[in-house]
Design a protein that fits this description.
By secondary structure, the chain is α+β, with helices and mostly antiparallel strands. The chain contains 5 helices and 13 strands.
């Protein structure tokens, strides 16, 4: 399920939860709420490192003196938009503050190419003359891009068009402009891609691993409702890694009740 975008400063609303049917369910619900902060709930922004990272909502940080990104308006006009959410001007900390700055990346089946959908529901495209727009509802070769790791700038990509040219940002005294007509890669074609953390595969895996490891004996005993021996602690931690933690908690509770009345 795709979550709506949130920006810094937005107030977060709390969802109301249905009341559990009994004490056991209530205890399980509390344990789930305390421990279930998975990657799918992470709306922070991170930097893409490899082409395989690129997916979901993202912004293109352009190689310009003034921190800027690629944006489009409702009519599909593509333009350069100033970035406001970043730390001390560092492009690797940038986050969007306007939905017009955000593009949704999706892999094109059977290829290594990616499409980028704007907030207006249309796809970013580049014609044979290098003019960018976001006006089409379907994906054709003009709306297909190859993200190539930059050899000039770390954690950056050159975005190749169907004409084997690259997106480049022009910075002159008259105006800023982005086109898709650079014949070769350079620092001017090196774009940083900032994306939502929950879509980054390696970030997601490492966070899942950390979340499974971080549970103490005290937390386990609170979940079960009694003191546990060493074997039970090891069994529950193993179940947490394997994905059957809640079933193991229930078994431990049932065992505790049987021991109490035996």
């Amino acid at each position: 399920m795709v979550k709506p975008l949130t920006f810094k400063g937005d107030k977060k609303t709390k969802k109301r939860k249905a009341a559990p049917s009994d004490d056991t369910d209530a205890s399980i619900s509390k344990e789930v709420a305390a421990n279930h902060h998975g990657p799918e709930d992470d709306d922070s922004w991170v930097t893409a490192d490899t082409p395989s990272d690129i997916a979901g909502p993202l912004i293109f940080v352009l190689p310009l003196a003034e921190p800027s990104c690629l944006a489009c308006d409702a009519s599909g006009k593509v333009f350069i938009h100033k970035l406001e959410n970043l730390v001390e001007g560092d492009p690797l900390t940038a986050e969007p503050h306007d939905v017009r700055q955000v593009w949704i990346a999706n892999r094109i089946v059977g290829t290594e190419k990616v499409s980028f959908k704007g907030h207006n529901g249309r796809y970013l495209g580049c014609d044979t003359k290098g003019v960018l727009s976001a006006t089409t509802e379907a994906i054709s070769p003009e709306e297909s891009f190859l993200c190539v790791e930059s050899s000039e700038t770390l954690q950056a990509f050159s975005i190749q068009t169907q004409a084997q040219q690259y997106l480049t940002a022009h910075d002159d005294s008259i105006k800023y402009e982005v086109r898709g007509d650079a014949s070769s890669t350079s620092t001017g074609t090196a774009l940083h891609i900032r994306m939502q953390a929950r879509f980054k595969p390696r970030f997601k895996e490492s966070k899942e691993s950390r979340s499974k490891e971080k549970i103490s004996r005290k937390e386990l005993e609170e979940s079960v409702g009694r003191r546990l021996d060493e074997d039970e602690v090891r069994r529950l931690k193993k179940a947490r890694v394997q994905g059957n933690f809640h079933e193991a908690i229930l078994d431990a509770r049932v065992k505790g009740k049987h021991d109490k009345y035996s």
